[in-house]
Amino acid sequence: MDDKKEILIQGDDQLSIIFLPLLEKGANLDVVVGGTLRQLLFDQVGIEHAYIDDRIQTIFLNAKAIDDVDQTVIHDGDVLALSGAMPGLVGATLRKGGKYAALRKEISGTQMASSSRHIQGKIRLKLFNTVLKNIGPKVLLKGVEILGTDLIDLLKQGEKELKANKARLFVRDKEISIPEAISNISKQDQCQIRVIITDYLTLYK
Q: What are the residue ranges of helices labelled H in the chain?
């Protein structure tokens, strides 16, 4: 855990878009577990209650569809997937609290009483469609943990776009080039990245 390579990436307002695919694949977040799903999304991820209730339409926790964010407890190692409305009967069936929820009872998660023990842990978060677009930049700003191999691939494939968005990379407050970052990251490294749109020097005065 302490061996993670922490990389801060700062650039123009379109920079986050380059990194959003990482959240579709899934990225790890350091969070306090033991509370409800709503507490996680509001208190730790920073998603407003109205957005949780109205815009996040499909929720999967460990491959089980979730209907009640106030009764579902988050545990260390959980895999959480969030999506906006999905089309057709499949979307209607998977929608949280929807009238067709009974049709997918075999893949629905069991509601759990709130845990009294809140501890530091880690979850894997996946975002899709409108939730990815709307919430992804906020998640990237807070920081996510990804494998070195995924970051290397993104830096290599997106180097042109990164430069176009005036991306700057910092490790321990020292600016490094994209080639330097690639050469210093092992494929098996755990990399903690933050993607910041505001000016780095202003933010860290």
A: 15-25, 37-39, 49-54, 88-94, 129-142, 148-157, 159-164, 178-184, 200-203
CA–CA separation, 205 vs 9, rounded Å? Answer: 17
Q: Which long-range contacts (CB under 8 A, 24 or more apart) does 160-165 make?
A: 161/18, 162/11, 162/15, 162/18, 165/11, 165/12, 165/14, 165/15, 165/18
pLDDT digits (tens, 9 = 90+) for 125-154: 999 999 999 999 999 999 999 999 999 999
pLDDT (tens digit, 9 = 90+) per residue, 95-131? 555 544 554 454 444 545 555 589 999 999 999 999 9
| Contact of 109 with 81, CB cutoff 8 Å | no
pTM of the model: 0.83
Q: Which of 130, 145, 114, 134 is nearest to 40 (CA)?
A: 114
The per-type count for the chain, helices as H runs and strands as E runs, is 9, 10
Closest CA to 194 of 149, 128, 137, 110: 137
Among candidate residues 145, 105, 154, the one with its CA nearest the CA of residue 124: 145
Q: What is the pLDDT of residues 43-55, one digit of tens each?
A: 999 999 999 999 9
